[in-house]
Specification:
Elements (H helix, E strand, L loop, with lengths): L1 E5 L6 E5 L2 H9 L5 E6 L7 E4 L11 H13 L9 E8 L3 E2 L10 E2 L6 E6 L2 H8 L3 E3 L3 H41 L13 H20 L1
Helix pairs in contact: 2-3
Length: about 210
């Protein structure tokens, strides 16, 4: 089971696993757009928010950041009792899982890419989020595969568009080169040598003489 919430921003999906089993599924089947949240150095739920395609972690709206940080703090046995706690967050793709780690435990591929924020107890925000909570049983693996296929399709379409643009640019360059080139003028059938010119002049003169004679 996965719990889904509506952020106060109204544009983002926020969700978390019910227990360690769901947390493991979420770790395995995240999206590139997902950001993972956890109370620093304390046991807590794993909360995720799904950003828009192309959106960076630095562009997370303040309300969304506060929603996720407050939610993960409230779902920490020790953290919820504290007036303030530190919460860490990073891209899902930065999560590192090894065979020696217990369920729910993660490391990071790049620790420098992990952000840390201090959050106070925000019961009113958590209550607002809890009112929107929905329990679902999604096929996380299938959703991930569908998203990967979608991304592959977008990538292929982008590559096709780039290739088409390159071909059009090459044709335009060739056309401009031909328009500026003398090759189309300096063709053998369009050219006349000196002998031809002299012969033509002599012939014309002869015809004029004959006309005068008669």
């Amino acid at each position: 089971m996965v719990y889904y919430f509506k952020s106060r921003c109204g544009e983002y999906t926020v969700y978390m696993g019910k227990d360690k089993s769901e947390n493991e599924d979420l770790i395995k089947n995240g999206w590139n757009e997902d950001v993972w949240w956890h109370v620093d150095n304390l046991s807590s739920a794993h909360v995720y928010c799904r950003l828009k395609p192309g959106q960076t972690i630095a562009e997370i709206p303040e309300d969304l950041l506060l929603d996720c940080a407050s939610l993960v703090k409230a779902n920490s046995i020790a953290g919820c009792k504290l007036q303030t706690a530190h919460v860490v967050y990073t891209r899902w793709k930065n999560l590192k899982k090894t065979s020696t780690m217990v369920d729910g435990q993660v490391g990071f591929h790049r620790p420098d890419n992990v952000k840390r924020v201090e959050v106070e107890k925000n019961n009113h925000i958590v209550k607002q989020l809890d009112k929107t909570k929905e329990e679902r049983y999604p096929d996380l693996w299938q959703e991930q595969q569908d998203r990967l296929r979608e991304l592959q399709g977008e990538k292929k379409a982008s590559l096709r568009a780039e290739e088409k643009a390159k071909k059009l640019a090459a044709l335009e360059a060739k056309k401009r080169k031909e328009e500026l080139s003398y090759d189309r003028i300096m063709k053998s059938e369009n050219m006349m040598n000196t002998a031809d010119i002299e012969a033509t002049e002599d012939s014309a003169a002869a015809e004029a003489y004959e006309d005068d004679f008669f």
